[in-house]
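Model it.
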Amino acid sequence: MRAGGLLVLFAAVALAQPRPPLGLLTADLDRWEGSHDGGNLLLKLDSALDYQCRFDGRSFFERDGRRVSIGMLRPGDRLEIMTDRTTNAALCFARRVKVMPAGYAPPTGLVRATEHFAPRGNLLYSGVVVRREEGRFTMRLRDGMEHTVLLRPDTRFVLDGTASDSSVVAVNARIFVRAGLNLDEEVEAYQIVKGEIMQPERRAPRP
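Modeled.
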């Protein structure tokens, strides 16, 4: 009985933790821990949740349009972070971190309040756009296969870490897509990202 109670407790704790966000994350920096070679960003999400994201020497930090070191970040800085997965399922990895101007707020529109800590879509694609039509586009993946993806009224577009519009989905553009299936089992895009961040250097795996 006691073991069963502990399992229920552990399950409740796990459910209470936000899953690692994938894509564009907006948050305030509480502080950072570690060294210039790697550590953790301790963040305050817009939802008032606390969160951590790993960084290392491959993370790109930017302030006022220039690359800076992690030491140039200050508590309270408003950050836009392009996140990726790590081998630790409980953590995200900060691939690109941009310090936003004072007073910056992410666009609202149709974006859900929970989008930054519980992003929708469990399908992830990276490839080149080969066709663009009204309300949809077709992309070719690295394995040569083609997938047609629908655009939603609330699809989020990101260009080089900054909110953009559907112009990022241009023929021959290399993009990252976070998507899901609708009731008709068609693939719908929740977030589309374009930029140099889509072509990371090939180095040793992150811890």
